[in-house]
Write a structure and sequence with these properties.
This protein has 457 residues and is mostly beta strands. Helix content is 8%, strand content 30%. It has a domain at 29-191: Immunoglobulin-like (Sandwich). The chain contains five helices and 25 strands. The structure holds copper (II) ion. Copper (II) ion binds at residues 227, 260, 314, 316, 319, 390. InterPro entries: Cu-oxidase-like_N, Cu-oxidase_C, Cu-oxidase_fam, Cu_oxidase_Cu_BS, Cupredoxin. Pfam families: Cu-oxidase_2 (PF07731), Cu-oxidase_3 (PF07732). Residues 1-22 form the signal peptide. Keywords: Copper, Metal-binding, Oxidoreductase, Signal.
């Protein structure tokens, strides 16, 4: 045997390492924050691909039966909403990184290149794998130093919704946006996994970015000011489009520092899976809100049978807001007309607000610093929506083509189906003196100012 290096000499070293580098699958870089078309699997077992909201699925290379991916950890610029960009850390050009989408039983090899200024590692949240592939710095591997590429390899043993993120300086690296989704489709019909027509996925994340700035404050523990899905805030979050009657699955993972009760309008869903796997059918119940705790993943499924534009959002009111100062005093009912002038002597430009609530903020365009998202943004067909952050719209329309994810615009409500104004004064109230119960018995009703009525005779 001979040693290639000694035979060819030092001059060929560069060529050898270049050849070694060429063996890596080329990392696919994404610069657009738009939702990319689902990646129909070009090789391997077929499946119905997911749609990553404002994201994309990583293409892979088949190498002797192994699905090979290449993730590059690096600083990225993420447009969080039109007109507002953040300087984050992510993978392959974006935060979150690309969704890894494979099939149960696939052997998967993932190269991770570190182009950050500090060490990192990669943890495959929720996966069954050899301990040494678990990516916990110091526990199962040394950290990946800047400039180095490491490789992970394991079999995707169980179907479900998972994620990936660093297990090195987690506080900083996740506050900077380092995360991605991992979907493992079942290899055959599974008793607790239904086929769906539309399969959406996103991660809940949060940032603390001072208005006018672009870099997150990494020491923030709880008081984040940007609550995002896949590092996008409403109105920058794509709608979830469905054709009436479609079965829809929404996969949600939480990598923030608090829980998020996810709430849908006009429909009920069941939680069909967690990062622990599919939920047995006998253990499911209907909900319109489900809490997604920190570090959890939830699969929500429903039939999109009601036409319209339905809000889908986190139910924590502060999480449907964009950058705002929380130190604002409550001014409801306070006459501040005198106060404003006095404070202006001390604080030039001071503006009293909130004396009748904060709705005025939805239409006010205060000259904020450049690169700041409006606090309550997003225009709807009836005016300002008054929300930002963790909010989007489920758009259910008749007769959409399978695979058509284009925004269909605002819903045209059929005549007679809209809430409407009845005039300045309410119509004269007609207090029923008495009415007849379904059983034909006369029922007496309480009159204004009167005493309690009684039923029947
Ligand atoms: Cu929330």
């Amino acid at each position: 045997m001979f040693n290639r290096r000694s035979l060819l000499g030092a001059a060929s070293l560069a060529a050898v390492s270049k050849a070694a580098m060429a063996a890596l699958p080329e990392p696919v870089i994404q610069t657009s924050p738009d939702t990319q078309a689902p990646l129909v699997p070009p090789t391997g077992r077929p499946y119905n691909p997911v749609v990553t909201l404002n994201g994309w699925t990583a293409p892979w290379r088949m190498n002797a039966g192994v699905k090979e991916f290449h993730l590059v950890a690096e600083p990225v610029v993420r447009e969080m909403a039109p007109g507002f960009t953040a300087k984050l850390w992510g993978y392959n050009g974006q935060s979150p990184g690309p969704t890894i989408e494979v099939v149960e039983g696939d052997r998967v090899r993932i190269y991770v290149t570190n182009r950050l200024p500090e060490p990192t590692s990669m943890h495959w949240h929720g996966q069954r794998l050899p301990n040494g592939m678990d990516g916990v710095t110091g526990l199962t591997q040394p950290a990946i130093p800047p400039g180095k590429t490491w490789v992970y390899e394991f079999i995707a043993r169980r179907p479900g919704t998972f994620m990936y993120h660093p297990h090195a300086d987690e506080m900083v690296q996740m506050a900077m946006g380092m995360m991605g989704l991992w979907i493992t489709h079942p290899k055959a019909k599974h008793p607790h996994i239904d086929e769906v027509d539309r399969d959406y996925a996103f991660l809940l994340n949060a940032y603390d970015i001072e208005p006018g700035s672009a870099v997150p404050r990494i020491m923030t523990m709880l008081d984040f000011n940007l609550w995002s899905w896949n590092s996008r805030i409403f109105p920058g979050i794509a709608p979830l489009v469905a054709s009436q009657g479609d079965r829809v699955r929404i996969r949600v993972g939480n990598l923030t520092m608090t829980n998020h009760p996810m709430h849908i309008h006009g429909h009920e869903f069941t939680v069909t899976g967690t990062d622990g796997g599919p939920v047995p059918r006998t253990a499911r119940w209907p909900e319109v809100t489900t809490d997604v705790a920190v570090g959890q993943m939830r699969q929500l499924e429903f039939t999109a049978d009601e036409e319209g534009d339905w809000a889908f959002h986190c139910h924590k009111a502060h999480h449907t807001m964009n950058a705002m100062g929380h130190g604002v005093p409550t001014m409801l009912g306070v006459d501040a007309s005198d106060l404003e002038g006095k404070i202006r002597k001390l604080v030039p430009g001071y503006m009293a607000m909130g004396q009748t609530g904060m709705h005025e903020m939805t239409e006010m365009s205060m000259p904020g610093p450049a690169n700041t998202a409006p606090m309550m943004a997003g225009d709807g067909p009836f005016g300002a929506i008054g929300m930002g952050g963790m909010f989007s719209v489920l758009k259910v329309r008749r007769g959409l083509r399978r695979g058509d994810y284009a925004d269909p615009g605002w819903f045209q409500h059929p005549p007679g189906t809209l809430a409407r104004e009845v005039g300045d004064a309410p119509p004269a109230a007609v207090a029923p003196e008495a009415s007849v119960s379904p059983g034909g018995v006369e029922v007496q009703v309480r009159k204004p100012g009167g005493h309690a009525g009684h039923e029947g005779h």
